[in-house]
TrEMBL record:
Superkingdom of origin organism: Bacteria
Transmembrane segments: 49-70, 172-198, 219-247, 296-316, 336-358
Any one GO biological process: transmembrane transport
SUPFAM superfamilies (alphabetical): MetI-like
Gene3D superfamilies from the UniProt entry: MetI-like
Protein name per its UniProtKB record: Peptide ABC transporter permease
Source organism of the structure: Ramlibacter tataouinensis
Family of the protein in this entry: Belongs to the binding-protein-dependent transport system permease family.
Length: 372
């Protein structure tokens, strides 16, 4: 009869037993693949100068869109004799605020301002209490006046506040550039796609027409039409749109000529897909790189064109806030240095931001740039 197993032998057996195999490590999860647009956006954000330029430019555009709430001679809210008035939504006369005449209320008039700020009455003005066409009648300085507490950036030769002029002029320039760029992109993409996709005689005919059209003197046409029709922003958009699409059309044509030879286009044709569906569904999405890269530079060209025409007196109607008109005033009033310097600074900053954005877009959409 065997006796009990010694404790020392059991411990040695336990120590000599093989250790349990470690659990297999989990396979690494591959990163989710990103779309080309997401990769381009990541590369664009990596370009700090371009991304900061986009943020600043967007902020300036948003502020200019709400210019009436930032710089306006009409107060935001008035409380007079226990009643509330909203001058931005409804026009009031001086008689509504204790005046003697039924003329529109001038909220910058010292007498009216005194009535609106005494006896429990109060008024809330915008940050800059001047509109784009407000004349500083009550200024204590001759026009054009240098920057002061009344007018932070001074006034122009007509007595209009420079801050209001720059704010509204910047908005006009940006909106003009956006509209002109949108029209040029639509026409340029359509004409370039037709030339590049069909090629042959169609391409040859379009090229000859574009050469003839591009040789027409654009400035002379603007001068002729400006003498016939009343100057307006719509007229400028129409005339400049007639020539603003040619540059983009060449880029789109080259992309379509290259992409129409790709295998996916041949496969679509073999399946019986129509030409229109191939152009807009298959080739166009793969030809948008030059279009997107072209946008900031096209906007810069449109803003410069508007400024140049306004400087020559061929632009927007007189009295419309415009950077070009302010530059013309600065040339005529050399002593009023603030007019030229402030306008030039706004124009240069706008063009620099657009240029930095264009460079960043070009690098982000370049397929040769590897993701780091």
């Amino acid at each position: 009869m065997s006796g009990p197993i010694p404790v020392s032998n059991s411990i040695e057996a336990t120590l000599k037993a093989p250790a349990p195999a470690p659990a297999p490590a989990a396979a690494p999860v591959p990163p989710a693949s990103q779309s080309p647009a997401a990769r381009a956006w990541r590369r664009f954000r990596r370009n700090r100068l371009g991304f900061v330029s986009l943020v600043l430019f967007s902020l300036l555009v948003v502020l200019s869109l709400f210019a009436e709430l930032i710089s306006n001679d009409q107060p935001l809210l008035v409380r007079y004799q226990g009643k509330f008035f909203f001058p931005m939504a409804q026009a009031y006369s001086e008689q509504d605020f204790g005046g003697d005449f039924p003329t529109p209320a001038d909220y910058l008039d010292p007498d009216l301002r005194k009535r609106l700020t005494s006896n429990g009455n109060w008024v809330i003005h915008t940050l800059n209490p001047y509109g784009p066409n407000t004349l500083a009648y009550h200024s204590s300085y001759p026009f054009p006046s240098a920057p002061s507490r009344e007018n932070l950036l001074g006034t122009d030769e007509r007595g209009r506040d420079m801050l209001a002029q720059l704010l509204y002029g910047f908005r006009l320039s940006v909106l003009f550039g956006l509209v002109l760029t949108a029209i040029g992109v639509v026409i340029g993409v359509i004409t370039g796609a037709i030339q590049g996709f069909f090629g042959g005689r169609t391409d040859l005919a379009f090229q000859r027409i574009i050469e003839i059209w591009n040789s027409m003197p654009e400035l002379y046409l603007l001068i002729i039409f400006s003498s016939i029709f009343a100057p307006s922003v719509a007229l400028l958009v129409i005339l400049l749109s007639l020539f603003g699409w040619i540059g983009l059309s060449d880029y789109v044509r080259a992309e379509f000529l290259r992409n129409r030879q790709m295998d996916y286009v041949k496969a679509a044709r073999a399946l019986g897909v129509g030409n229109g569906h191939i152009m807009w569904r298959h080739i166009l999405p793969n030809s948008m790189t030059p279009v997107v890269t072209f946008l900031p530079f096209r906007m810069s060209a449109a803003i410069l064109a508007l400024t140049s025409l306004d400087f020559l007196g061929l632009g927007v109607p007189p009295g419309t806030p415009s950077l070009g008109e302010l530059l013309s005033q600065g040339k005529q009033n050399i002593d009023a240095w603030w007019i030229s310097i402030e306008t030039f600074a706004v124009l240069v900053i706008t063009l620099l931001l657009l240029t930095f954005m264009g460079d960043a877009l070009r690098d982000a959409l370049d397929p040769r740039k590897a993701d780091l």
